[in-house]
Amino acid sequence: MLSAQARHRLFHAGFATIAATGADRWLAPAARGRGVILTFHHVRPDEAPPGAFAPNRLLAITPSFLDRTLTALRARGFAIIPLSDLPRRLAETGDPFAVLTFDDGYRDNLEHAAPTLRRHGAPWTLYVTHDYATGTGRLWWIELERAIRILDRVRLPEVGLDLPAGNDAQKSAAFAEAYRALRAGPEEILRAATLRLCGEAGIDAGRIAGELCLSAGELRELARDEAVTLAAHTLSHPMLAKHDDDAVRREIVDGKARLGELLGRVPEHLSYPVGDPGSAGMREFALAREAGYRTAVTTRPGHLFAGHAAHLHALPRVSVNGCFQTDAALRALLSGVPFLAWNRGRRLNVG
Prior knowledge:
Blueprint (H helix, E strand, L loop, with lengths): L3 H18 L1 H4 L1 H4 L3 E6 L1 E2 L16 E2 L1 H13 L3 E2 L5 H5 L6 E8 L2 H14 L3 E5 L1 H4 L6 H11 L2 E4 L4 E4 L3 H17 L2 H15 L6 H5 L3 H7 L5 E5 L12 H19 L5 E3 L10 H10 L3 E7 L13 E5 L7 H9 L4 H7 L5
Parallel strand pairs: 1-5, 1-12, 2-3, 4-5, 5-6, 6-9, 10-11, 11-12
Antiparallel strand pairs: 7-8
Helix pairs in contact: 1-15, 4-6, 4-15, 8-9, 8-10, 13-14
């Protein structure tokens, strides 16, 4: 299995090749489709120098790169539209469109993303996890990072790991191995393990959501902005496909009403947590329809095509990755070229 560093080198090489050959221009008409939904998480200034231990760096872009992304969308003829317009635009021909979506409900979206979005006149969607907004949720990937930053060894008997973590390189390797092993198993074990590591490191895991995420009051204030769509990201951010029917129904169906009470408006759109095939599938797509959501998004990569109008509860997105904040990467992602083979092989990428 390739290391994260090796994968990043391959991606950088791929983006550079697409740019050098001009494939982002001459293949775009076949690859781009009707539009694209972009995925963001954190937007904040760089907090760690290159080479430092920052395993969740991929989830954060800088405000300046968000500005470049919005400028590039306009320059390439994309209309930036609200999520509510997506079903109609899928049925129309014409200029391509882009929808901007931000997952989890981080405070830095308000502090650093919103001013840039406002300056560009860009509508955007914030997918809110109920328990993060109430300060009771568990951001286990942050817990894992913070614990490993403090600990000199990472002992995970739950998955048979005992890893050195004495320097940044060892910590990065330990995080990658621990993340892979924990993600492969039951989520109950994952969450118990990261909580235990936080205890060993002297970290209060229960304070992380309140530190990083917008509160219910802040979200209700944000909802007054007509450019912002507040949407659902379940109650507790589980990998839904790992849980039984009752738990998933509670997260998707019952969660809609509870999020409505929290936000002051019932959400009409849903984002599946994690969103890959191991976290959301046909059962989850059916429940999202049953709950009455107008759309639901995955993290399966790809642009949108006319056929997605029949699959509005299994929509693909394109992640704007903090490890690839370059113009070459941006041109490639907006062209659709990196996803051309994937989309052909998976048809509409909804199964």
